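thread: overnight batch results

M.L. [08:02]
morning all. the overnight job finished for the chain we discussed friday. pasting input first so we're all looking at the same thing
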Amino acid sequence: MAETPLFSIVIPCWNYGHWLTRAVNSVLAQDGADWELLVINDGSTDTTDAVAAELLRQHAPRLRYLAQANRGVAATRNRGIDATTGSYLIFLDADDELAPGALGVYRELIGRNPDVDLLAGAYRAITEDGRERIRSVGALTSSRRQRLRDYLFTKKLNFSNSAAAFRRQVFAQRRYPETLRSVEDIPVFAYIAAAREIAVTPALVAIAHRHRGSLRHNLDNANAASKILLDELFRPGVMPDWALAYRPRYEIQRYLSLFRTCYLAGENARALEFYHRALRSNPLRTLSRGSYLRKYLNLRRR
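M.L. [08:03]
and the structure it wrote out:
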């Protein structure tokens, strides 16, 4: 491995020991010697420690391992920033995989865009029942205002932690908010969209595995984090001044997005709760969103 690696791959793991080997092997299969790999056990109570011990026996010193009391994924990623030295950071979820050749894709992007702050690619989403879908990043405009709107509102930009590489300097200004137990990536990606340089590729760089347990856990955390997310996302001194004016609009968008997620997951009571929050924030804007209104009326008729 190079003395100062180009990439630091950090895998936070909380009770995903049964998937950890798959994630680690997807990194070890990458080519080149310009990367380091760190697994951080965030207070797991499952087999993570034992799985990591076996992986270390096989792959140290290429693999490093840290364990800590449970602090949440944001704090774990932030510790990974401090415990590594690579020029670019990749945060791979323990239940996901790097796609074959992903680091080669990133190297090519860096070669063509040496000053870029975020490298983002496509990922394959796989559900528990085997359904697959390729999720691309989307088209990137030259306007930072439009990039922020495309990320927060129109969803024309689709970023995923496992399918992105971050220049280390980004985190001198915007770390993962440790007050958030989920959606902690939204303030980071929004800051980059509004204030940093981005390069995207249609190439596949990650494989994301979706399961209902993680969905329910994320919904619980998202419900508790709505106000904190708004404060972190639109933090003065971090986000550009012009971006702060989007807070009221995003509050409605966030509630409607959670409404849709709950609706599709069959969490009907929660779905109604989030739609009513959006209504209280801005009735006219909420009712003007026809697709959401139709879903809401469908729920009310049940």
